[in-house]
Amino acid sequence: MEELSAPEPEPEPEPEPEDAGDAVIATRGLTKRYRGGQLAVDGLDLAVPSGSVFGFLGPNGSGKTTTIRMLMGLIEPTSGTARVLGRPMPGAARAVLPHVGALIEGPALYGFLSGRDNLLRYDAADPTADPRTRRTRVAAALDRVGLTAAAGKKAKAYSLGMKQRLGLAAALLQPRRLLVLDEPTNGLDPQGMREIRSLVRELASDGTTIFLSSHLLDEIEQVCTHAAVMAQGRLITQGPVAELAAGARGRLVVTTPDAGDAARVLKEQGVGDVVVTEDRVTAEPPDGELAEVNAALVAAGVRVRGFGVERASLEDAFVALTGEGFDVAG
Ligand SMILES: Nc1ncnc2c1ncn2[C@@H]1O[C@H](COP(=O)(O)OP(=O)(O)OP(=O)(O)O)[C@@H](O)[C@H]1O
């Protein structure tokens, strides 16, 4: 009998996670267990929309660096998949990485070379970079990060913030579709933090997708359009920052020199989770009429200087989601 050579059925394309249509980074069940047995990342489904400034938030040890190393193809996942710019990692690393600028664990710089010479070296190490346009590229990158005036100084004389900016300049020598920044403000003083944050906003305004990790909640709120929250290797939530914060209830805040009395009255009124810090008493917003609570305070002789419900922050959302405080110090 003649055998029919029916064409092999096409393998089903792997289903993409929800709304990963224009995702610059998409992972499915991404998991990393280190040899010692430590489960560092556990079943991560991440979707980073194109054009977002995406904050990857979590306390120290929550698995952020491990995830970034998998995304960049530096280490293999134990299971699950990661796609960056639509291509699988680490398999397509050679095709993907030229479009990705990365600043991971501080830039590797030569202290005895000037900032400019460091960048010239970086550029020379890139086989795709045309040597004839090298100086122009380096000058543009220095200008981009505000280091033109300090370009001739030795890198060892740079402040930590300037070194970070030089690292960013190196990542910006070529046009990038994605920038991956691992804790870019770690160790910087407040001025250095402000500089890096405004630089990140500026870069984002050109349409580059930025994925940045941080253990600082307020940093994510100030800079990011979207965020994913990690705790102990697992994804707690992800989405637009405004929506994440809105998901949590705000706090009732009473400002008064009679904080002790105010706390007592609030508890008598059945208000939950009353916390006193100096002249501020915060609590869960009551279910009933706010005005009644205020009236009870005033009737008890509490000098109420301020009374209202503050908008929920990302921190409130984190606490609500994990049932834990966000340990900023790690
Ligand atoms: N090479 C390794 N071998 C074994 N365990 C590791 C290794 N690297 C990290 N870990 C562990 O995996 C967990 C996640 O670490 P990871 O560095 O990814 O977290 P993180 O959120 O980036 O924290 P940090 O901000 O401190 O780097 C931690 O418990 C850490 O001790």
Automatic annotation (TrEMBL):
Acidic residues composition bias: residue spans: 1-21
Keyword Nucleotide-binding: yes
Pfam families per the UniProt record, alphabetical: ABC_tran
GO terms assigned for molecular function: ATP binding; ATP hydrolysis activity
Keywords in alphabetical order: ATP-binding, Nucleotide-binding, Transport
InterPro entries linked to this entry: AAA+_ATPase (IPR003593), ABC_transporter-like_ATP-bd (IPR003439), ABC_transporter-like_CS (IPR017871), P-loop_NTPase (IPR027417)
Region of interest called Disordered, as start-end residue ranges on this chain: 1-22
Family membership noted in the UniProt record: Belongs to the ABC transporter superfamily.
Name of the featured protein: ABC transporter ATP-binding protein
Organism superkingdom: Bacteria
ABC transporter domain span: 25-257
